[in-house]
Design goal:
Blueprint (H helix, E strand, L loop, with lengths): L4 H11 L26 E5 L15 H6 L1 H7 L3 E4 L27 H13 L3 E7 L8 H8 L11 E2 L20 E4 L4 E4 L14 H16 L4 E5 L32 H15 L6 E4 L6 H7 L9 E2 L2 H4 L6 H13 L7 E2 L9 H5 L5 H14 L3 E5 L11 H5 L48 H5 L5 H14 L1 H5 L1 E4 L7 E7 L5 E7 L5 E2 L11 E9 L11 E2 L4 E7 L2
Parallel strand pairs: 1-2, 1-11, 2-3, 3-7, 7-8, 8-9, 10-11
Antiparallel strand pairs: 4-6, 5-6, 12-13, 13-14, 14-18, 15-17, 16-18
Helix pairs in contact: 6-7, 12-15
């Protein structure tokens, strides 16, 4: 993106401490410190249902998260994001919220929540709440009222429409989870709109009463110790109310983003409103966004022209690179680091909706080495990184067999195609994996016998220690913490190379061999004089020899080497 000098100055004023301007051509700027915590944080996603059960019902709970705060502190994360723990019929495991300001009894009480945030604060860990803002549950009292009559004051809190002339749905639009986006409601003879499940009616953000109620929900959690929110499914807040016919729809096939169901202009204003609420509280509260993007320009827009929308929109271009493809990663990283006006990119691979990275990138033989590549990359880049519980020990997805052998129950009424990545955290090799003393709601992975926290903490060479060391380095090394991103050329299509550099020109070189063969490199692209080696910081497999110009990398090898300015 090109911006004039005057434009840059205006932008700099607007972005305040967050903005970093380019110091050296081809290098992402060294920002003016100190930066708000979230510009370089590691945010650890917890699926509370599967993290730690403390009452033996087989379902994780808030007290379980509290119990594991010391572990999270030892690992070195800055914040945790909890997926929904609100009262919910669990048609979409909590993403169908029946009470925005309550705690579901299966997860605990408000007192448990307050204790969790208090204890987290003592350990310097912030807590983010998952805010499901596009839709509620059909069991939410707001929806019950809304559907009770056409004249109910909350009628317009949801999206209602008369049937088409033939009595059918108002449009031919299909929902993200498949089937029509419209559900007929007999008592009032209208359809309501749901872009996800029919149990998840869309909230009508154009209604001022609804908007205020949702802002009040945010204030509730911000007053109860939340450091911000992960915003669920932000693109879908508004619909095109000319209700166009979709010529491309195949009945029954799930759809994704369509111009009529997502990213409508009014969304921007609503997001600015959310940001204003968060910014009205002290202590650098933050919005982490689940957004949909198809280009880096899209991603830049989500931050807001004046960086006044979402602080941390997730970079799904990076997340969704297919396979371990060095050229694709290099392109995605360079654009995120260099084309976002110095705003912090948000990198991650694993979450509660996607195959875990161990399973996704692993080849069944070199998984441990590969996990060190993907973690080193995500955690040494400039910006914010997300982790998903269990990633630090290389937890795999559940296999189809493991799930097939596990019966549905009152705790898990429906099978969800995302069950494989939501299995209980593997704390130990004991039965229940240290997650529960009861019958878990989802099966404990068979890998727990080998892949568990207890075993890995005892083994200094384990993936757990690799992560802990990376997180420590990221915090304590000035270049990794606040330094500029320097794109480099590795001279080898299998290897990603870049550096992070502080204002004095000292820093860290990162080399990632994405192939099963040893690779020889020829590093070029240093802006100014190339630096001198200053020792190996981390390497997989272990190595002490630093060569800044012609290094050799082992198969799936990683090197993180220190350098000094000449
Ligand atoms: C988001 C959540 C996902 C949920 C959906 C509907 O994509 O991450 O788990 O099913 O929104 O709320």
């Amino acid at each position: 993106m090109k911006i004039s000098r005057i434009g840059k100055l205006a932008l700099r004023a607007a972005l305040g401490a967050v903005l970093a301007l380019q110091a050296v051509p081809g290098e992402a700027a060294t920002p003016a410190s100190p930066q708000p915590w979230w510009t370089h944080a590691v945010i650890y996603e917890i699926y509370p249902r599967s993290f730690q059960d403390t009452n033996g019902d087989g379902i994780g709970d808030l007290n379980g998260v509290t119990q594991r705060l010391d572990y999270l502190k030892e690992l070195g994360v800055d914040a945790i994001w909890l997926t929904p723990f609100f009262p919910s019929p669990n048609a979409d495991f909590g993403y169908d919220v029946a009470d925005y300001t309550g705690v579901a009894p299966e997860y605990g009480t408000m007192a448990d929540w307050d204790r969790l945030t208090r204890e987290a604060r003592k350990r310097g860990i912030r807590v983010l709440v998952d805010f499901v803002l596009n839709h509620s549950s059909d069991q939410h009292p707001w929806f019950r009222e809304s559907r009770s009559s056409k004249t109910n004051p909350k009628r317009d809190w949801y999206v209602w429409h008369d049937p088409a002339p033939d009595g059918g749905p108002p449009t031919n639009w299909e929902s993200i989870f498949g089937g029509s986006t419209w559900e007929y409601d007999k008592p009032t003879g209208q359809y309501y709109y749901h872009v996800f499940l029919k149990q998840q009616p869309d909230l009508h953000w154009a209604d001022p009463g609804l908007m205020k109620a949702m802002y009040d929900v945010m204030r509730f959690w911000l007053n109860h110790g939340a450091s911000g929110f992960r915003l669920d499914a932000t693109p879908y807040l508004f619909e095109d109310t000319t209700w166009p016919h979709d010529p491309d729809v195949k009945s029954g096939a799930p759809v994704g983003l369509k111009p009529y169901n997502s990213n409508l202009p009014a969304t921007r204003e609503a997001l600015r409103g959310l940001r204003a609420v968060v910014d009205s509280f002290p202590g650098n509260r933050v919005l982490l966004g689940e957004n949909a993007i198809s280009s880096i320009a899209d991603l830049r827009r989500v931050y807001g022209a004046k960086a006044d929308e979402i602080n941390l929109p997730m970079d799904f271009l990076y997340k969704d690179v297919a396979g371990l493809n060095a050229a694709a990663f290099k392109a995605r990283i360079d654009e995120a680091e260099l084309n976002l006006d110095g705003l912090p990119p948000v990198f991650h691979f694993s979450n509660h909706d996607s195959t875990r990275q161990w399973t996704r990138f692993g080849d069944g033989v070199n998984n441990d080495r590969i996990a060190r590549i993907t973690s080193a990359m995500t955690l040494t880049l400039r910006g914010t990184a997300l982790m998903y519980y269990g990633e630090e020990i290389g937890m795999p997805d559940l296999g189809a067999e493991e799930l097939r052998a596990f019966p549905l129950s009152a705790k898990r009424k429906v099978a969800d195609n995302r069950d494989p990545e939501r299995s209980p955290m593997q704390w130990s090799a004991t039965s229940g994996a240290g997650f529960t003393t009861g019958q878990p709601w989802l099966p404990v992975g068979q890998s727990a016998g080998v892949t568990n926290v207890a075993a890995q903490r005892a083994d200094k060479q384990s993936l757990y220690h690799w992560y802990a060391q990376l997180l420590h380095l990221r915090k304590t090394n000035a270049a990794l913490r606040d330094g500029a991103y320097v794109p480099l050329e590795s001279g080898n299509p299998e290897v990603v190379a870049y550096a992070r550099r502080d204002r004095a020109g000292h820093g860290v070189l990162v080399l990632l061999n994405m192939s099963a063969k040893a690779q020889t490199l020829s590093i070029t692209g240093w802006p100014g004089r190339s630096p001198v080696a200053d020792g190996m910081l981390m390497a997989s497999p272990s190595s002490a020899h630093v060569d800044l110009s012609h290094p050799v990398l082992e198969p799936y090898g990683v090197q993180i080497a220190a350098f000094k300015a000449r």
